[in-house]
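Pilot study result, target chain (148 residues):
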Amino acid sequence: MKILPLLAVLVLATPAFLVAQPTATGSISGRILTSGGEPLNHALIRIVGTPRGGYSRADGTFLLSRVPVGTWELWVVYVGMKEQRRLVTVVQDSMTAVDSLSLTPVAMVPCFPANSPPTHRPDIGGGTIRRYTRDEMLRVGIYERVLR
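Predicted structure:
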């Protein structure tokens, strides 16, 4: 019986700074396009340093909500395109619009074991798929991009 009043005193005496405070948030919106102006569906948009992120819609637009207030780096990735990063400042209770992000294609080289022979593929136009060595890929500067 004496525990109940003691518990009430402890709860009422708890300092306000120990109670979780709501975090101020805002939103980020934008559009992801190819260098030719076509919208990119399902491009990955991440806020670096947080678990927040999402994907673009069929028209290339995206909306990230409940983003903590502050300056954040957006990271946009799409297979076959060069990634893009952009700094964005989020203001409390408002929508931060990002100018259209344009992604450019990167050279994609098939990677096969260098010691295997070229393969003739009549089912894809009769061409030959050539294997590239690591040194050949380093010479043209694509080895690191392909393996990242």
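One observation from the pilot: The chain has two domains: 23-103, 107-148. A full batch analysis is planned for the follow-on phase.
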